[in-house]
Design a protein that fits this description.
With 87 residues, the chain is mainly α. The protein has one domain. Helices cover 68% and strands 7% of the residues. The chain is built from two helices and two strands. It has a two-stranded antiparallel ribbon with strand order 1-2. A hairpin with a 4-residue loop joins β1 and β2. The mean pLDDT is 79.
């Protein structure tokens, strides 16, 4: 048997059957736990990719706005961004 702890399924012990950690062979328990770990890692990676995508979309909007502003404002904005980067 397994119990859901919110993040993954954990094998539960059943004292009526000698305390066996699960109903399936141990190798299958290990595979299930390994797959659950992989799922968590992939979800974390997906979250990071979404965050990066959001940042890139924001930068793209900034670049598009920079392209539509008058040349005098562009030079000022580029200069201020360079000063922020150098500090």
């Amino acid at each position: 048997m397994y119990r859901d702890n919110g993040n993954a399924l954990e094998p539960t012990s059943d004292s009526s059957r000698g305390g066996s950690p699960c109903d399936v062979p141990e190798i299958q328990c290990v595979k299930v736990l390994s797959l659950e770990r992989t799922i968590r890692e992939l979800r974390d990676e997906l979250r990071e990719c979404r965050d990066q995508n959001e940042l890139l979309e924001f930068r793209l909007l900034e670049i598009q706005q920079l392209g539509t502003s008058p040349p005098s404002q562009r030079r000022t904005k580029v200069r201020s961004e360079q000063e922020q980067i150098s500090t």
